[in-house]
Amino acid sequence: MQPISNRPGFRQMGVRRFGKVNWLGLYTLSRREIMRFMSVWQQTIFAPLMTSALFVIVFALALGRSRGEVMGLPYLAFLGPGILMMTVIQNAFANTSSSIISAKMQGNIVDTLMPPLSPAEIMAGYLIGAVARALIVAAAIALGMALVIGQGLAHPLWALGFVVLGALLMGGLGLLAGIVAQKFDQMAAITNFIVTPLSFLSGTFYSVEALPGPFRMLAHWNPIFYLIDGARYGFAGVSDAPALRGLMVCGLAVALVLFTAWRWLATGYRMKA
């Protein structure tokens, strides 16, 4: 009798049956990540919008008309794109990091690791959720800016490109943070002492040209500065650094972060026993 392994159509265990990409698995993971934040939209979508609005209101009331122009723009028009990008990167980071750390703490990370998904597909599924959340938040804030302060889009494609790059960069960093952290306290420390200071101190509320020489030089080595500066170029048409340079720096940073995330997922670093 012919062995089962030699019969036509037989596949060894562990052989992928989905081609080069498991599109069904990728769709399922992406849908899960999107539904996860949409099911609590009051916290994941509405709360960031309220925070952004409060920033604008506080600065408008505190400074009033006493604040002169910055880079040739009224201060609120200068501030708006920075607030938008700051909110985008914080939400992209929170989406992937909270998903990973919650699954690890609740013990259901195996539900993501066991299905026939490659490391690249797992990473892509999480990033699609982060980008979707970032785009929804960015669109809502952009609409508010247009209605309240009349802020339009000087370069729409540049604005979209930097928003997507920001979501990919911080979504990737969120993956790394979620993998490294072993409990919620460690994740809170990463958020409070790394992500929040970097987003606040990267030209969100001021032009980096106002900084002393050494600090200005350090700012130009910070990819988040280029994200905020690029968003300002896309919305207002002005920037501290050339937009093309910012695009290249952000692209390289995204490639480095995503390669590291892929490598950690491929090796099971802090994910598998």
Automatic annotation (TrEMBL):
Recorded topology in the membrane: Multi-pass membrane protein
Keyword Transmembrane (UniProt): yes
Residue ranges of domain ABC transmembrane type-2 in the record: 39-265
Single annotated GO MF: ABC-type transporter activity
Name of one Pfam family that matches: ABC2_membrane
InterPro entries: ABC-2_transport_permease, ABC2_TM, ABC2_TM_bact-type, ABC_2_transport
Keyword ATP-binding appears in the UniProt entry: no
Intracellular or extracellular location(s): Cell inner membrane; Membrane
Keyword list, A-Z: Cell membrane, Membrane, Transmembrane, Transmembrane helix, Transport
Family: Belongs to the ABC-2 integral membrane protein family.
PANTHER family linked: INNER MEMBRANE TRANSPORT PERMEASE YADH, INNER MEMBRANE TRANSPORT PERMEASE YADH-RELATED
Protein name per UniProt: Transport permease protein
Organism whose genome encodes this protein: Paracoccus thiocyanatus
